[in-house]
Amino acid sequence: MSHTLDDAALTPFHKRLALLSSGGPFLDGYILSIIGVAMIQLTPDLGLTTNEQGLVSAVALIGIFFGAFLGGWLTDRFGRHLLFTIDLVALVACSVAQAFVNDVWWLIGLRLLIGIAVGADYPIATSLLAEFTPRRWRGKLLGAYVCMWFVGAAAAYVAGQFLLTVDGGWRWMLASAALPGLVIILLRMGTPESPRWLAKRGRTDEANAVLTKVYGPGVTVADLGEETGRNVGVGAMLRSGYGKRMAFITLFWTCSIIPLFAVYAFGPAILEALDLGGDLAHIGSAVITVLFLVGCVVAVFLVDRIGRRRLILHSFGWSAVALVGLGLATGASPWLIMALFAAYAVLIGGTQILQWVYPNELFPTEIRGSAVGLASSLSRIGAAVGTYLVPLALTGLGIGTTMLIGGAVTLAGLLVSLAWAPETRGMTLAESAALTNTTSPVRGSLRVTTVKGRHS
Q1: Are 416 and 251 spatial neighbours (Cβ–Cβ below 8 Å)?
Q2: Domain 236-456 CATH (choose: 1.10.10.10, 3.40.50.2300, 1.20.1250.20, 2.30.110.10)
Q3: What is the mean pLDDT of residues 183-203?
Q4: Bridge-partner residues for 455, per DSSP?
């Protein structure tokens, strides 16, 4: 089997595609963060009740839940190229419409649609990126995709603070997501369809045309190194053996983001509960946010050096230690508490980037988008429940117990990964997605991987 494209050099095309694909998480971070600043002016202007404030803040997450699965199903059915642009057109239109609302329910409806558009972009963009990227760079580029969420969040806070000085600035804040969205749409125009998807749909001539355009004359579908087989539905694929992989991805993803969403969303409240109140809580929360980004960047450099399996095990293991330490360190030195928070923020980065690496590598082309979308949607359930329960736990159980529960959830992720996490470093997409892969820990090593009689 030819591996010409899997072993290709990284080109400006790949770098451009990676940048354009990362527009989704950038907009996600921007949209979910800007609302927090906008609520300062929005609440009195529209006379929102406490329940309405909660709905306005959370409804985009509900939209992402539905959008991720819908986008995955649509991109497997109709292709990556068309939806790569259409979803952001909807986002831009709804963002602009927010500036003109005078009723809270119109605002809630628009933010639900925006969440659907953002959620849909995740499986669309990552599938397209994974199917073009050479195996040597796939882990890095898919991992770097996550980093843009924090860049978007930072941009939102800067824009929000500036617009707070403007009368009715909340309208401009909510509409401002349209500007980067429009830029991304214009830059995405002309992005070719995935030749792997075209080949799977029997559109060989179109696939060859894309390959010639991107890689030059003489490159054909024979160089894709893709497994052969007929297109089947998601249900049939899961019953044929991919259900275990979906369970692994959903469980580790959920165990990773429940504590992270809690720490990120309630950072100031948690720090105040740990006797780090006032300005120190807000400064500490900002520093921790930056360290989440640092952790993801570090993980991007490690994912191909130490491999996927070792990275996820170390990330879960040491993050659990940091959270348990926080649970036991209530009343300790502020510097120790900040150090443990910082350690957690950096160490959890490995599990964060693998949320997009593993789903794209462990499923075949015909259901890759659906698998990524389904895993993203299912994990959001746990994140929403966890985020909802954090303030209740802080009040009813106390900060120490709350942090220990977070540590227990993280340890559960470690156990799931010990049992099921495969090593896919250095594999082609055909190899990593094949059900003939087997992965098991062995003495003296974290894993051994066998692919059709080959060890790595």
Answers
A1: yes
A2: 1.20.1250.20
A3: 88
A4: 450
Tokens of residue 82, six digits = 């068309």
pLDDT at 331: 67
CATH of the domain spanning 1-191: 1.20.1250.20
* pTM of model > 0.70: yes
pLDDT per residue as tens digits for the range 7-28: 788 889 999 999 988 888 898 8
211-264 confidence digits (pLDDT tens) = 888 888 878 887 776 554 445 566 666 666 788 899 999 999 989 988 887 666
| Residue % of the chain over a pLDDT of 90 | 24
Give whichever of 225-234, 257-266, 282-291, 423-432 has the largest mean pLDDT. Answer: 423-432
Which conformational region is residue 453 in: left (phi greater than 0), alpha (psi within -120 to 50 degrees), or beta? left
Give me the residue spans of the domains in the chain. Answer: 1-191, 236-456
Beta-carbon contacts of 78 under 8 Å, excluding residues fewer than 6 positions away, are none
Place of tokens 């490159």: 219
State the pLDDT at residue 438: 45
| Residue 120 to residue 204: CA distance in whole angstroms | 27
